[in-house]
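Design job #97: recover the sequence.
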């Protein structure tokens, strides 16, 4: 499955699952409140599949998969059969209308909790937070050394690389100094402070991460396995050999080795390689070949693979997973509101917004990383949908909730004229937000 097709496929899966669950919330509560549902649609526009259920509801899947809707019997949209007037939406008490509208984001929140719980049950494969710093970066100046293991960030323990980076990214929004506890290769624990206040205002997270310069510690230049029948094996290299030099160039990491092979082989396939084995140096001449391994593009190879990073998998039993799900949902929601607040006040850049293209790319990447990662992704997107829909913007659920709260206070519904004006304002705000997110997605593809 190529990257483009995979991104589109997993985007459709993501939106299909989350939109269906969101709209089912509206549908289920509307039915419980005695409101007649005319249509349940996943997607907008022309229907590509439809059927009429025994309850008289028309169920359909439409061509444009960027949302969905539940169409209820509504007196504002035309005359209502007197026999059905007790099933009409606007005639219901305001608290029932609030429940129906809030049910969509509410079901997204339920989905988030269940998805995080399932993620912790399945386990999310990760690696230990053993780090290094790019030379002359903020992290390097703060005292990060190659091989340091992150123990805690801002007082909270971390066990995996992704947990550590999530904490760092959240802290970047405020650009305040960030306390970090690490254990060095000598076993000594140290307390460092990442001076995030040195980061310039108005840049996106990717630019901040580049300036911070925190990365996983590089793998040593060791050939963990040597593939039989490949150039390295034919030249006498064995698993466990440490690669010292290639054509006289010292190799300090496996990345150096991977970078040197195609560059040097393009000049001459015959490579002078010196390895260390059992404390002794051994010169080898390895003739690289142009091959494609496991469906990858053709490149110069010698047939070795690196050591694996130290694994770190978060996996809990049912009760611990439930507790972790609640805590993760709370922390993620708080971080999301924090980002929204900082973008509104100009403390964080709107470049951090991502649209459908960015979601599609992450969906594809997380699906290929395993069930735990994809469940985590679904939970994050579901929570984002819940929060977005609760924003007090007309045309979103939060806008309608605002109208009904005003109705509760003033004792009568908001005028139709006010609602129509709000709809136009809401559409402008929503399309502006979508346009900005789409612009950010496109801009990320362009050279800086």
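Job complete. Output follows.
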């Amino acid at each position: 499955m190529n990257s483009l097709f995979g991104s589109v496929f997993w985007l459709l899966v993501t939106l299909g699952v989350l939109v269906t669950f969101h709209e089912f919330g509206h549908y289920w509560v509307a039915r419980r409140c005695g409101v007649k549902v005319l249509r349940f649609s996943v997607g907008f526009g022309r229907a590509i599949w439809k059927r009429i259920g025994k309850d008289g509801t028309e169920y359909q899947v439409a061509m444009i998969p960027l949302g969905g809707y539940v169409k209820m019997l509504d007196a504002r949209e035309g005359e209502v059969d007197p026999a059905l007037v007790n099933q009409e939406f606007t005639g219901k008490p305001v608290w029932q209308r609030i429940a129906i509208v809030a049910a969509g984001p509410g079901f997204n929140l339920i989905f988030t909790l269940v998805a995080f719980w399932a993620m912790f049950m399945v386990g999310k494969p990760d690696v230990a937070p053993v780090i290094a710093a790019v030379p002359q970066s903020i992290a390097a100046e703060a005292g990060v050394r190659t091989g340091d293991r992150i123990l805690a960030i801002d007082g909270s323990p971390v066990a995996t690389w992704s947990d550590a980076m999530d904490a760092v990214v959240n802290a970047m929004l405020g650009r305040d100094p960030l306390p970090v506890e690490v254990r060095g290769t000598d076993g000594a624990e140290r307390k460092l402070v990442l001076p995030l206040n040195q980061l310039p205002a108005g840049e996106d997270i990717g630019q901040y991460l580049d300036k911070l310069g925190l990365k996983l510690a590089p793998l040593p230049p060791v050939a963990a396995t040597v593939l039989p029948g490949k150039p390295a094996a034919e030249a006498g290299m064995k698993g466990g050999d440490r690669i010292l030099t290639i054509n006289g160039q010292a190799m300090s990491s496996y990345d150096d080795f991977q970078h040197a092979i195609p560059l040097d082989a393009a000049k001459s396939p015959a490579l002078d390689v010196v390895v260390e084995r059992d404390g002794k140096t051994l010169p080898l001449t390895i003739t690289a070949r142009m091959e494609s391994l496991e469906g990858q593009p053709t490149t110069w190879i010698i047939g070795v693979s690196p050591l694996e990073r130290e694994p770190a998998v978060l996996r809990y039993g049912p009760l611990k997973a439930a507790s972790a799900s609640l805590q993760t949902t709370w922390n993620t929601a708080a971080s999301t509101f924090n980002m929204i607040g900082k973008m509104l006040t100009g403390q964080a850049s709107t470049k951090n917004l991502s649209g459908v293209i960015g979601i599609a790319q992450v969906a594809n990447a997380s699906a290929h990383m395993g069930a735990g990662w994809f469940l985590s992704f679904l939970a994050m997107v579901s929570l984002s949908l819940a929060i977005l829909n609760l924003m007090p913007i007309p045309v979103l659920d939060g806008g309608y909730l605002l109208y009904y709260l005003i109705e509760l206070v003033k004792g009568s519904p908001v005028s139709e004229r006010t609602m129509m004006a709000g709809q136009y304002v809401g559409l402008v705000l929503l399309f502006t937000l979508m346009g900005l997110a789409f612009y950010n997605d496109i801009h990320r593809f362009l050279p800086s």
